[in-house]
């Protein structure tokens, strides 16, 4: 990304310093976390030397591996379901204007602005009312619902940027609706679907609040496990796990960004 130095905003005194302070506030704690994950000292915040032993301890911990496995299962299943639902919703909304279309779009995007704790409590009450026993399946259902808006927005944006004349041209060449979708719309829509899917995956993988409320026995995910660890103090293992999760998050966000650029 290029910075336009001719922009009049840069003439304001202190803007550069404020910008650097802003980025330092955002990323300096993350840098400190990564550095301390290589600290050989048992006391997580006192540096005494370089070591990778905590990563080995984390990878040998069966409870952590089990929690990571649950996180991956939940994120994978809920991402597939949410992306499918989001794709169908985006296709339906793109077919044309109808009465209440703006309201439907607002309802789809509403979970993005509702406080997560409200969603968590409401989801838990709903499961209790219908007698749905808490476990891995309830977490998958809850994650699927709140991941739909995250997957929907990139797919909808991709559809908005597509030339509608291409579908009409396919119809003029005697392609039926399925053939026009399969051979024209879907190939052009793939970047949006992949971008939305990866965004939904990382949101599900990192979620703590909703998972904490609706997870039952045996459904502990990695964020919930980390929360349990830090209740007795920050240890080097916590730093190592958090760093590994950060690497996975950066990987998926980067892939989502690169796929998103394929739209151009």
Describe this structure in words.
It is a single chain. The protein has 264 residues and is mainly α. The protein is built from eleven helices and no strands. Helix 3 (62-94) crosses helix 6, helix 3 (62-94) runs antiparallel to helix 8 (177-206) and helix 8 (177-206) runs antiparallel to helix 11 (236-261). The chain is globular and about 70 Å long. The relative contact order is 0.14.
Please report the total strand number as a whole number.
0
Please state the average pLDDT score. 85
Q: Helix fraction?
A: over 70%
Helix/strand-derived category reads mainly alpha
Indicate the low-confidence ranges by residue numbers. none
Number of helical regions: 11
- What gap, in angstroms, lies between the N and C termini? 16 Å
Integer-rounded radius of gyration: 23 Å
- Element order, helices and strands? HHHHHHHHHHH
Q: How does the major sheet shape up?
A: none
Portion in beta strands: under 5%
Q: What coarse outline follows from CA principal-axis ratios?
A: globular
SSE layout and pairings?
Elements: H1 15-36, H2 53-59, H3 62-94, H4 101-109, H5 116-129, H6 136-161, H7 164-172, H8 177-206, H9 209-214, H10 222-230, H11 236-261
Helix pairs in contact: 1-11, 2-11, 3-6, 3-8, 3-10, 6-8, 7-8, 8-11
């Amino acid at each position: 990304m290029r910075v336009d130095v001719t922009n009049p905003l840069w003439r304001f005194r202190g803007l550069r310093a404020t910008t650097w302070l802003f980025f330092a506030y955002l990323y300096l704690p993350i840098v400190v976390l990564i550095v301390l994950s290589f600290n050989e000292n048992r006391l997580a915040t006192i540096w005494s030397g370089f070591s990778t032993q905590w990563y080995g301890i984390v990878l040998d911990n069966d409870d952590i591996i089990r929690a990571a496995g649950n996180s991956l299962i939940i994120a994978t299943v809920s991402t597939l379901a949410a992306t499918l639902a989001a794709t169908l919703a985006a296709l339906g909304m793109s077919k044309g204007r109808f009465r209440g279309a703006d309201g439907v779009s607002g309802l789809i995007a509403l979970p993005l602005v509702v406080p997560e704790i409200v969603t968590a409590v409401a989801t838990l009450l709903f499961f209790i009312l219908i007698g749905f026993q808490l476990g891995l399946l309830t977490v998958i259902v809850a994650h699927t619902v709140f991941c739909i808006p995250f997957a929907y927005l990139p797919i909808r944006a991709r559809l908005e940027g597509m030339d509608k004349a291409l579908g009409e041209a396919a119809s003029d060449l005697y392609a039926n609706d399925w053939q026009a979708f399969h051979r024209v719309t879907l190939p052009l829509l793939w970047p949006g679907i992949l971008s939305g899917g990866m965004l939904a995956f990382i949101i599900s993988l990192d979620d703590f609040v909703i998972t904490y409320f609706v997870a039952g026995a045996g459904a502990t995910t990695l964020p919930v496990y980390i929360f349990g660890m830090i209740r007795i103090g920050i240890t080097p293992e916590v730093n190592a796990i958090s760093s590994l999760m950060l690497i996975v998050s950066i990987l998926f966000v980067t892939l989502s960004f690169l796929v998103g650029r394929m739209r151009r």
